[in-house]
């Protein structure tokens, strides 16, 4: 909470702004989607609009390169909950998230409203159920976003990809693309103040991030294709492609 005392006006103002945007987002969901809860396309558009407004609350400048597909499976590295805002602002999407996100205060509720596919990686049967939900979304033409690292990191590298949810890419010929997300924080440490990992807790991390003057997020999209019908091989292929892009940009 030290950041709140260092920048009380900035943090308080942004917290009030955040609360107002979330309240407005809830109202717009009721108006636009509330009587049509089964319409995933409306949910995805609602989420995109909300994410775009959230970028302004956090003072995030977004730099996008490459072409983002409008459908299929998008595989991305994972650094923070901010990744959701960054990708979600680019296009209407369906996210795949770990089960714990569902229990997050406020944000978990919004994730459920957005039609997020939640996965319990500790239960094989529930992983299979999540894969079926992903496939259903892909079949109706949605763009499904998956973070196959399974958890976030400090961004110094890209963690090995878990293959359990790549079955739709192995069994069906959906468009396949990758995304590399990176951040720049002029007045702080990206690994400790933007990335959300280790034993960090949401509220203190969120307040500290709101105290920053601004944040630059860059995302690079690349179209690819599954070179195998083996999901483990696909996981290694996609990991290598994203890591190669990261290495090339750092050179």
Provide the structure class: alpha/beta
Query: How many structural units, i.e. domains?
Result: 1
Task: Summarize model confidence as the mean pLDDT.
Answer: 90
* Shape call: globular
Report the uncertain regions: none
Helix content, binned percent:
40-55%
Q: What would the CATH topology be?
A: Glycerol-3-phosphate (1)-acyltransferase
- Terminal CA distance reads 37 Å
> What is the tally of helical segments?
10
Q: Specify the biggest β-sheet.
A: 7 strands, mixed
Question: Gyration radius, to the nearest Å?
Answer: 18 Å
The CATH architecture: 3-Layer(aba) Sandwich
Strand order of the largest sheet: 1-7-6-2-5-3-4
User: How many β strands by DSSP?
Assistant: 7
- Which percent band covers the strand fraction? 15-25%
Secondary-structure element pattern, one letter each: HHHEEHEHEHEHEHHEH
Quaternary class: single chain
CATH class annotation: Alpha Beta
Structure description:
The structure is a single chain. With 251 residues, the protein is an alpha/beta fold. It has a single domain (2-250), classed as Glycerol-3-phosphate (1)-acyltransferase. Helix content is 47%, strand content 17%. It has helices at residues 2-6, 8-32, 40-58, 82-90, 107-113, 124-139, 167-171, 190-193, 202-210, 231-250, and strands at 60-65, 72-76, 94-98, 117-119, 143-146, 176-184, 215-224. Strand 3, helix 5 and strand 4 (117-119) form a beta-alpha-beta unit. The radius of gyration is 18 Å and the shape is globular.
């Amino acid at each position: 909470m030290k950041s709140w005392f260092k920048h009380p006006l900035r943090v308080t103002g942004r917290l009030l702004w955040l609360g107002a945007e979330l309240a407005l987002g809830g109202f717009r969901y009721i108006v636009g989607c509330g009587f049509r809860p089964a319409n995933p396309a409306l949910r995805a558009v609602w989420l995109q609009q909300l994410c775009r407004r959230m970028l302004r609350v956090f003072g995030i400048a977004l730099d996008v390169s490459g072409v983002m597909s409008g459908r299929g499976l998008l595989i991305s590295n994972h650094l923070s909950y901010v990744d959701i805002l960054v990708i979600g602002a680019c296009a209407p999407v369906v996210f795949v998230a770990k089960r714990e996100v569902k229990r997050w205060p406020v944000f978990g509720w919004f994730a459920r409203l957005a039609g997020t596919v939640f996965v319990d990686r500790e239960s094989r049967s529930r992983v299979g159920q999540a894969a079926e939900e992903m496939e259903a979304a892909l079949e109706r033409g949605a763009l499904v976003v998956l973070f196959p690292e399974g958890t976030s990191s400090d961004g110094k590298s890209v963690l090995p990809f878990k293959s359990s949810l790549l079955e739709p890419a192995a069994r069906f010929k959906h468009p396949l693309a990758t995304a590399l997300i990176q951040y720049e924080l002029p007045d702080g440490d990206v690994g400790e103040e933007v990335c959300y990992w280790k034993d960090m807790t949401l509220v203190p991390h969120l307040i500290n991030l709101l105290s920053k003057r601004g944040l630059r997020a860059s995302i690079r999209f690349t179209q690819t294709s599954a070179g195998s019908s083996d999901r483990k091989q696909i996981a290694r292929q996609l990991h290598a492609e994203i890591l190669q892009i990261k290495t090339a940009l750092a050179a």
